[in-house]
Amino acid sequence: MAGLPGGLMAVVQEHWGFRQLRPMQERAIAAVLAKRDSLVVLPTGGGKSLCYQAPAVYRHAGGSKGVTLIVSPLIALMKDQVDSLQRIGVNAIGFNSSQTASEKAAAVQSLKTGTAPIVFASPERLTLEGFTGYLNGFGVSAVAIDEAHCISQWGHDFRPEYRKLGRLREVFPGASIHAYTATATETVRLDIARQLQLDDPEILVGNFDRPNLIYRVLPRLDKTKQVREVLDRHRGHAAIVYCLSRANVDALAAQLRGAGYHALGYHAGMNNEDRRSAQETFTNAEAPIVVATVAFGMGIDRPDVRCVVHVGMPKSIENYQQEAGRAGRDGLPSECVLLYSGADKIQLRSMIEKSAHEAAGRGEVVAAEFVPACLGHLEDMDRYARGAVCRHKALVQHFGQTLDAPTCGACDLCLGDVTEVPDALTVAQKILSCVARVKESFGVGHVVSVLHGDRSEAVTLRRHDQLSTHGLLREISLNTLRDWVYQLLGQGALAQSEGEYPVLKLTKLSWEVMHGRHAVRLIELVRHDRERPARRGAAPTGGRSSGTTPLLGASYDADLFEKLRQLRRDLATAEKVPAYRVLPDSVLLAFAASPPKTLDAMRQVTGVGDVKLKAYGATFLQAILGHAPAAALAVVVARKPASSSPRDAAARRKLAFSMFRDATYIEDVVQQLDVARSTAVGYLVEFIEAEKPKEISRWVRDEDYVEIASAAQTHGRETLKTIYDALEEQVTYDEIRLVLTHQNATR
Ligand code: ADP
Ligand code: ZN
């Protein structure tokens, strides 16, 4: 390793259990050791903390006196970092206003005896001369500033208390200064360096792509339902749901709780105690869902957040990168979903203008460029959401980087979730002219049924079946037509009136589209919602607590993984620490993928440092050695097709039956048994025939059941298609099949 002393890696292995440094970490650590100022820009999860922590520990191990001072924006974050360093055998200490006297005394003692290599402090602390003078007495060799973009007004998260950090240079003349941030455009970067008075800094900018994150943008239709769909894909794991307003947070959190999810609200309007408790639950609980405004998150470094959902558009791409980036810090597959509506931009714009106005009213100085800069950020974000460019590409491009792969395989556009409507302009023109023909006096439902060619009373009474636009898009399903109207609304190519019965209105943009002067984008969505009926009337525990959704794309013994997670849960409860503090998911997954047989083999796993090995190695090894994978139960989640020997098939069928007995969703059976959906539905049909369950609401929603049953009565049970057509494609063939089977079986 060029330029780094040999002993450094030993320290990294001992405490962190990493066998290698990432390339940027190497250079960043070299800069600290050389006492050269630096500015390190790495995405969330890029491994910034090691860059300043490892040199501090290395120096201290080598007997050098001084401490490394780390400036961290939030007390909660500080406590978290101190704890996690303590647990890997590093005696870090922190000073903040929420400490008890004895905690403070212990910290002072560590300083005095020279046993602490790392001292955390909040920016406010560092404005107290007594405090900085005191620290100087112990020798400060390096200062690290976490979340350094908070110092810049051009960043997305300016914090006035960070401004005072400009003085650090004078306060600690003997220390090198190192700034770290996850997100910084060129302007912000220069501003950070200038504000902190960095001296010829080494500027290191890492790769911004986060390949383990799957990005999706969906038009927002029924947000609660859409949020639940995403959460259900990550059952048993931590999740964050961002909303634009406090009122939305409260409402959504309550709805989710009502449906049995372990959901907590978080926003700045809550009192300190409630906020602290939400934050603590998020850190400590096994699978919490926090529904929050963007006030939540800074300083949350839980590594195993499996999904981040935005129910509204963020203020900027930087914000999005930062907020969505809280998913999958541990490098395991995670999902980021943005539920988008064109109206968000308008709402955010008025929020920005209002806050600038209020600030001015309070006599604060608002730079003339501030509001225009914010609006520019909004435009960028809006373009991203509407864009048809691979999301990974679009994001890195925003940060001035490129991504060469032709497809990322990890965004809605590359995964083929969406199909671009090839002739979107013509389709849009048809929709818009229908709105014009019905004289801008009807709502979405009516316009859609006219386009579809319906002859319902509502249509014929008004003689809308005589319109030239009647049946113009008869080959398109009602659902899809509705999506497209919403997409046009989202792009401002249509508007909706206010009130209880909103009607569709044309806008200036509508006319440009009709004249072919403005392009629009229409996509066909994969309608996940038809595949998994919404959970109804589930008991509070019926939500997400039953088992864990296997991590997508990884290949491992899911049964062993569950066992190890349970063991970790028990250890964490006994020690009163968050589960990931015992060992992170990435380590348990490595154990489940390739079970180590000895402590030495365990030590080879990335993330198992000597301290953790000593504390937990034997316990976990015992569990691993004691785990006999039962042939039928050793569920390996892999992309390869399942083997299809008759014995396996019989075992799978048996397993499927027992899963259905436990009311498992079809999708989960598909995933866990690695079978096609049609196979799983086939098993379910057999299961219903054989065991005649009283009701099947787990797989077919009650109201769909009633509709199908009554359509079957009116139209006969001969072909599924008659029923399918009679119900206007509102239900799936699978659902019809399940209902008819159930009726036959229980007759
Ligand atoms: P950041 O502060 O940039 O968001 P972290 O310091 O939290 O990133 O590190 C992100 C994740 O990467 C953590 O789970 C950490 O354990 C892991 N990590 C960091 N450096 C390495 C390394 N050299 N090898 C393996 N894992 C690493
Ligand atoms: Zn892509």
Keywords:
single chain, 747 residues, alpha/beta, Rossmann fold, Arc Repressor Mutant, subunit A, 5 domains, seven-stranded parallel β-sheet, 10% strand, binds adenosine-5'-diphosphate, binds zinc ion
Model description:
By secondary structure, the protein is α/β, with parallel strands linked by helices. It has five domains: 6-205, Rossmann fold, CATH 3.40.50.300; 213-410, P-loop containing nucleotide triphosphate hydrolases (Rossmann fold); 420-525, Winged helix-like DNA-binding domain superfamily/Winged helix DNA-binding domain (Arc Repressor Mutant, subunit A), CATH 1.10.10.10; 555-635, DNA polymerase, domain 1 (Orthogonal Bundle), CATH 1.10.150; 646-746, Arc Repressor Mutant, subunit A (Orthogonal Bundle). The strands form four sheets. The protein has a seven-stranded parallel β-sheet with strand order 3-4-2-5-6-1-7, with helices on both faces. A six-stranded parallel β-sheet has the order 8-13-12-9-11-10, sandwiched between helices. Helix 1 (6-15) packs across helix 3 (48-61). It is globular and about 90 Å long.
